[in-house]
Amino acid sequence: MNRQIRKMGIVLALLFSLLFLQLNNIQVLQAHKLANAPANPRVASRLYDQPRGDVSTADGVVIARSVPTHDIYHFLRQYPNGPLYADITGYFSLIYGTWGVESSYDSYLTSHIQPVRNLSDVITAGSGPDDITLTIDSVLQGEARSALGGETGAVVALDPRTGAILAMYANPTYDPNALASHNREAVMSAWKSNIANPSNPMLDRAYRRSYAPGSTFKIIDSSAVYDHDPSLATKSYPYLTALTLPDTNKKLSNYAGELCGGTLPTLLAVSCDSGFGQIGLDLGASNLVTEAESFGFNKVPPLDLPGAAASTIPAASAFARNLPGLAYSAIGQEDVQATCLGMALATAGIADHGVIMAPHVMSQIRNPQGRLVKSYAPHPWLTATSAATASAVTALMVGVVQHGTASNVAIPGIQVAAKTGTAQTSTSSGSNNWLEAFAPASNPSLVVVVVVPAQTGLPLDTTGSEIAGPIVASMFRAAIQEGRVK
Amino acid sequence: MSTVELEGEAERRPRIPKPRRRTELGLVLLADFAVVGAYVLASLGASASIPGNVAPLMVAIVGLSLLAHLATRWLAPDADPVLLPLATLLNGLGYVMITRLDHHLAGLQATWSALGIVGYVIVLVVVRSSRDLDRYRYLLALGGGLLMLMPLVPHLGQNINGARLWVRLGPISFQPVEFAKIALAIFFASYLVEKREMMATPTVRVGNRLITDPRPFGPVLLTWAVSLLIMTAERDVGFSTLVFAMFVAMLWMSTDRVLFLVLFALLLVFGAFLAAHLFPQVNERIANWINPWPHAASSGYQPVQAEYAMGTGGVAGTGLGLGHPGDVPIAYSDYIFSSFGEELGFMGTSIIVMSFALIMGSGIRIALRARSEFAKLLAAGLTVTISLQAFFIMGGVVRLLPFTGLALPFVAYGGSSLLANYVLIALLMRISDEAGG
Question: ipTM of the assembly?
Fold first, then answer.
């Protein structure tokens, strides 16, 4: 019987070897694939069982933090005042991943091994997440929301000297807390209801949605005049109610059929469409498109948030057989589209003596011991124009406030430069109401751009001055109160 | 029993320590050290603190294993030195994992472990010689049959996860089939040794050919058929297959007729086919063995999660207390092997597989050295049983085999399984001791 027992032992040993081989297969060969499979709940656990770094505004208001929980995971991401900062923080979701600052600075916010920089770190370092301080000013961000009220629209405020974004808010918005829940069903239903909402609350419309910029584009026309054909700056344009366009029997009518004309300062102050239509034709497509591109059109702004959209203008060649289109583009309509951030950057180009600084929301990253890990070094993105041109256009924009369409953003004691925009989307649905401004004109420290697009609930005959003007004015008042604008 | 033999027994129990027992003591203490270390690490991993009850726990673990060791020293001084340390290690590691998963079950498992050790000692006390077992074979066969029938008794039996394998007596639930497997192994060994000559050699003339006398197969086949029928009624596939395999292995070892192996292999395939058609949960398990991924959210959830767990563990594991073994349903019993795979990695699972391989090796060595044919076959049968039980459940977890809800001996949560396997080890120790090592 011993022979059979020995054979049985060998058979059993073979069975255990098979087990060993399969363990090699699962735990060595396939281990990486299994460990990182999206459906493996541990992938989420790795993130949700560790604290994530705080995100704070420049003035120290925490807008994203991790709190310990005792449910299926150990830490819950919370966004105090979530909807106010949703377009900046983005979300940290079990199912839908990350967005916003949560996405672009994910590697810092995720708990990681802290590098050892000096001797004391050997003891204290360990692992943990970094904390992020943003450039956002909670006062201006809050003011943007309350000034916008219930209207759909966007507000961007930035410091033209550094590109630091001080406020960036858009209506409607969403609550990132609902997406950061540990309850999968709740997360999915919040997401689905956001997606199904026709007002598209998760659009981040301050930097991802473009609208026809209307007359706010005229600062680029003006800049193009000085840069490409200075003779046009002194040319007097005829007083018209409508511009006769080449190659068509259509006419480019002035707003409300007004009669206007004259030289560049007058044209800009009253926002004379017939005059700027003709300036566009005089400049030619190549000059206009080149100028727009140097102000950031057709380029995605290097914003440190995901998904930023470019402002767009067609290629010069597209206007060769479409001169009427060129005239309309010069007044910021037809094929020209700009985001609120895009116009803020173009305005910053004028305000910062021709240089557009790269836009950013991150100011500093600090490790758990409070030591600086990284700070954003402001750097130019584009050279939009010369300092001389910028100064000339600034003077024109000051005129718009002093005796033009933007008189309602004037502030006693501080020189404000601005330009309004009222882009007719179609006769039946009203207009996009814009206003771009900066102050103080002599040494600008704040650019504010507001867009309130055509929407139900607004009268059809609104203007940028009337709708966006008061919002810009209250942003300036808040900034002055803070001492940001002196 | 002759007087000469009694004197022989007396001679083999001097009080001086035997080298084998000294080895065992060393190994038991090593296993205790590993278990207490794992317990502290699991607590550090889960809550970053040293557990408050570590001192009493250490006393309990060391005390229990020393109790078993001292009993062996006294009752079976010449027995194999590695079986007890291996059982201590597996039982201890299982306890650590169960504590980490469910504190309430851990308390119960500690009680079962203590009972298991007591059962081990009682078997060594009561069964002074393997021949005692040989004498009661029909009683044991009857007992085994009754044990298997128990879950079918109304009010007594309980359905858990589709199988009716449990008996509830007052506050205690247990799986009688764990004990039945031992009773049946003893019966098979005893009966087959007596009739093996008749079963192995053709003795009956039919026409001008000699064929094997079919009569000796009667009782064996009857027992086997009844146990299969009962387990069909209990809708359990794991234990039926285990008892079936044990029976075939013992039949082959005693008769050396390959024909039986082939015949029963065919029967097994047919049985599996039939079971898959009769029981939906068997069909489901076969589908999830071949490919669980399409059903990852429904019936395949458990195997898929187990694979994620073991893949996440990788080579070295996440560390005790640092993984999420609880994401796999029933991680404390059916899928405890995947919990080790996650937290201790390939190294941990290899340690468990190797521990069972060592138990198997010791069992085979005991069988080879056993004095009587009966002891040989019994030791081999018990070794096959515990090895296959471990192989079936570990193979089921890693999808080498269809999943069977067997308990991983010593490791998984469950009182019946712990007690029965301690009894099984005690019997092997008894046979080993008789052979003088």
Answer: 0.91
Please check whether residue B352 touches A, CB under 8 A.
no
Tokens read off for A209: 């949605």
Does residue A122 lie in a domain region?
no
Chain A hits for B399, CB-CB cut-off 8 Å, are: 22
CB of B43 within 8 Å of a chain A CB? The answer is no
pLDDT by residue (tens digit) across A306-347?
999 999 999 999 998 899 999 999 999 988 999 999 999 999
Task: State the pTM of this model.
Answer: 0.66
A15 contacts in chain B (CB < 8 Å): 387-388, 391, 395
A vs B: CB pairs below 8 A: 130
Out of B310, B327, B380, the one facing A8 most closely (by C-beta) is B380
> Cα dist. B111→A6, A471, B62, B106, B409 in Å?
37, 73, 15, 9, 16
Domain assignment of residue A224, given as a range:
210-362+378-482
The encoded tokens of residue A226 equal 């000085």
Which residues of A are identified as catalytic?
215
Interface membership of A117 toward B (CB under 8 Å): no
Overall number of domains in chain A: 1
Q: Where are the alpha helices (DSSP H) in A131-247?
A: 138-148, 176-179, 184-196, 205-208, 218-228, 231-234
Which token pair is B231? 């387990």
Q: HSE-up of A60 (CA within 13 Å, CB side)?
A: 0
CATH for A426: 3.40.710.10
pLDDT, tens only, A369-408: 888 999 999 999 999 999 999 999 999 999 999 999 999 9
A32 touches chain B (CB under 8 A): yes
